[in-house]
Amino acid sequence: MRPRRPVFVDVDTGVDDAMALAYLFGSEDAELVGIASTAGNVGVRQVCRNNLGLLALCGVTGVPVSMGSATPLSAPLRTAEDTHGPQGLGYARLPEANSELTTYDAAEAWVRAAHAHPGELIGVATGPLTNLALALRAEPALPRLLARLVIMGGAFDYRGNTTPVAEWNVSVDPESAAEVFAGWNGAENLPIVLGLNLTENVAMTPELLSRLAGAAGSPSTPMSAADARGTVSTASNPLIRVLEDAMRFYFEFHHDQGEGYLAHLHDPLAAAVALDTEIVRYRAAPVDVELTGTLTRGMTIADWSRRWGREPNAVIGVDVDPAAFFDRFIDRVGAFAKRLG
Ligand code: BDR
Ligand code: CA
């Protein structure tokens, strides 16, 4: 068995964030040392409820959950209930929390976790980067303290999903994304950045979801675009039921966008890469965020041809093996769900 590595995750849970958390819960090579909640897909209090509810559902104890800022650094908050459902988890209902939030906030949680595991901590950010930017203001040595940072955000040489050019996580809080990238200027250990150009290659389908249910010992009939909207899962397994009810909403959203009855697993890919970097191919580049464009605010730009004269401050995912990802995802989450019965 591979050694367990400390992992700290910052999420705006969110259907695919929930799938990322399930992946980390089910990964025996990860020791989850903290969850930061950030405002994004839904408001920050709801994100906290979702994180605590998922821990309760999965019987995971001892993982501190911290609340982040209720708003981005300087922009007003936008949320995405159309994509993730009124509470962020599609049609799923989570149990009430059986643990409390930390007394310190999410930015402090980042700094505490980095100091507790200097040079060892793997950070994963799958929401707007507000907490991480605030953590970096408090502890500018964060890039040296982390062993690895994986960010789901941006879109490189690829259209946006929020504006024609901007991806959601960056678009919600472009100033924080810009601060985070600037914070890694000159660092040795560059963050891995997975944008839509990469994550949209990872599409969950009804067939793959059925494979997951099968792996959990809780077989289910594949969902279909012809099903009545909001049809609830009949899976006997509590985690599979929640994931299916959440995914159905996400499938319906993607279907309505003309993308097919499927859903992109942006955030679970980041969780998987945090533990196994080799499922993605990368290219380093200087990266920055457009903050002032009248049409392009929130756009992420990679200066591949080095016209800015700057050194790379990020390693950008450019190719992924989706089959390798899904094999890992189904193995880990399926076996974890099975243990929950
Ligand atoms: C990102 O936006 C959110 O809605 C998802 O959870 C993911 O982190 C994709 O653009
Ligand atoms: Ca997210």
UniProtKB/TrEMBL annotation:
InterPro entries given in the database record: Inosine/uridine_hydrolase_dom, IUNH, Ribo_hydro-like
SUPFAM superfamilies according to UniProt: Nucleoside hydrolase
Residue stretches spanning the membrane: none
Keyword vocabulary terms for this entry: Glycosidase, Hydrolase
GO biological process terms held by the UniProt record: purine nucleoside catabolic process
Domain named Inosine/uridine-preferring nucleoside hydrolase: residues: 7-327
UniProt GO cellular component terms: cytosol
Keyword presence, Hydrolase: yes
GO molecular function, one term: purine nucleosidase activity
Gene3D superfamilies named in the record: Ribonucleoside hydrolase-like
Any single Pfam family the record assigns to this protein: IU_nuc_hydro
Protein name: Inosine-uridine nucleoside N-ribohydrolase
Organism: Mycolicibacterium chubuense (strain NBB4) (Mycobacterium chubuense)
High-level lineage: Bacteria, Bacillati, Actinomycetota, Actinomycetes, Mycobacteriales
